[in-house]
């Protein structure tokens, strides 16, 4: 059963966090990090943060607190722990869903600095890495983020009427290689006619915020020109577009997909790696220009 924090719970919550922290997490912290975190989870500091406006929810099994989640500013998760013997029962997901309900309408996303141990847990709950692992005050953490306004993000099949907006997005995206003929309105229209069900856009409040071109030759799928508006990144839009394209390919009987990324496009390469696209170092990529006007 999920309940809001009540004064007097802080001692049991501190004990719960301490037991899980010592079993799974403390080994990843330096001596300084252990001191900082231990001070943060004292009963008095938990109560002080609640009095300052932090949201604290608990899961209770009868009279016993089995899990806890704490957030500040309606967006940043400070603490998220489930007793070891209660893990694997969906309690963490229930706590997360209850937090999302509590902050609905106040933010579009949740963020967290995850311990190394908890990264897979947050990924299962829909969070993605914003950057690589960092160390601060002796505490190792990975910044992660999750969009909670998914209903506002619409994934749609791309139409040629979307071209003007798509071209603006492509022109403003770093690491994007565009061709005068292939990527002209006529070129994209030809591609969409050949691949009417495998190219997608995302719209947020009516605005085109992402795009993916995808097609196949009956044997392999190929992905091109995937881009998300800069001010809409880290919301899971790129992932949704890729998943939509792969699902469409699978529906058409395609069992494998490939793509090309510039070597110096570090952000793009990290994204595709996170989506499960592996790097082939046993191949040489070759092409030949047929029409010299297509520069």
Proper CATH architecture of the largest domain:
3-Layer(aba) Sandwich
Structural class by SSE content: alpha+beta
What can be said about the biggest beta sheet? Answer: 8 strands, mixed
In CATH terms, what is the fold-level topology of the largest domain? Answer: Aminopeptidase
User: Order of SSEs, N→C?
Assistant: EHHHEEEHEHEEEEHHEEEHEH
Give the DSSP E fraction (strand runs of 2 or more residues): 25-35%
Polypeptide structure, described:
With 295 residues, the protein is an alpha+beta fold. It has two domains: 2-148, Aminopeptidase (3-Layer(aba) Sandwich); 151-274, Gcn5-related N-acetyltransferase (GNAT) (Aminopeptidase, 3-Layer(aba) Sandwich). It has nine helices and 13 strands. The strands form two sheets. Strands 1, 2, 3, 4, 5, 6, 7 and 8 form an eight-stranded mixed beta sheet that branches. A hairpin with a 4-residue loop joins β11 (207-216) and β12 (221-228). It is elongated, with a radius of gyration of 23 Å. The relative contact order is 0.09. The mean pLDDT is 93.
In short:
With 295 residues, the chain is an alpha+beta fold.
Secondary-structure map with pairings?
Elements (H helix, E strand, L loop, with lengths): L1 E3 L5 H16 L5 H10 L2 H9 L3 E7 L2 E9 L3 E7 L8 H13 L5 E6 L4 H6 L3 E2 L4 E3 L2 E9 L5 E5 L5 H9 L13 H10 L5 E5 L2 E10 L4 E8 L8 H15 L5 E3 L6 H9 L21
Parallel strand pairs: 4-5, 12-13
Antiparallel strand pairs: 1-2, 2-3, 3-4, 5-8, 6-8, 7-8, 9-10, 10-11, 11-12
């Amino acid at each position: 059963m999920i309940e809001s924090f009540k004064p007097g719970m802080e001692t049991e919550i501190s004990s719960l966090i301490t037991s899980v922290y010592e079993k799974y997490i403390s080994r990843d912290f330096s001596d300084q990090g252990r001191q900082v975190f231990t001070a943060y989870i004292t009963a008095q500091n938990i109560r002080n943060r609640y009095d300052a406006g932090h949201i604290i929810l608990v899961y209770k099994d009868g009279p016993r607190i089995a899990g806890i989640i704490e957030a500040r500013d309606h967006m940043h998760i400070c603490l998220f722990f489930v007793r070891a013997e209660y893990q694997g029962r969906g309690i963490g997901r229930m706590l997360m869903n209850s937090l999302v309900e509590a902050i609905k309408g106040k933010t579009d996303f949740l963020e967290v600095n995850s311990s190394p141990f908890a990264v897979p847990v947050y990924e299962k709950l829909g969070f993605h890495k914003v950057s690589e692992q960092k160390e601060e005050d002796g505490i190792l953490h990975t910044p992660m983020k999750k969009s909670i306004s998914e209903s506002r993000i619409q994934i749609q099949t791309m139409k040629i009427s979307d071209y003007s907006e798509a071209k603006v997005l492509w022109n403003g995206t770093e690491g994007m290689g565009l061709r005068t003929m292939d990527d002209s309105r006529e070129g994209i229209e030809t591609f969409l006619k050949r691949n009417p069900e495998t190219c997608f856009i995302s719209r947020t409040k009516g605005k085109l915020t992402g795009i993916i071109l995808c097609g196949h030759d009956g044997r392999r799928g190929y992905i091109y020109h995937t881009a998300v508006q800069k001010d809409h990144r880290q919301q899971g839009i790129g992932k949704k577009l890729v998943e939509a394209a792969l699902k469409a390919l699978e529906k058409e009987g395609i069992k494998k997909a490939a793509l090309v990324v510039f070597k110096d496009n570090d952000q793009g390469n990290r994204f595709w790696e996170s989506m499960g696209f592996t790097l082939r170092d046993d191949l040489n990529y070759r092409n030949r220009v047929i029409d010299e006007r297509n520069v």
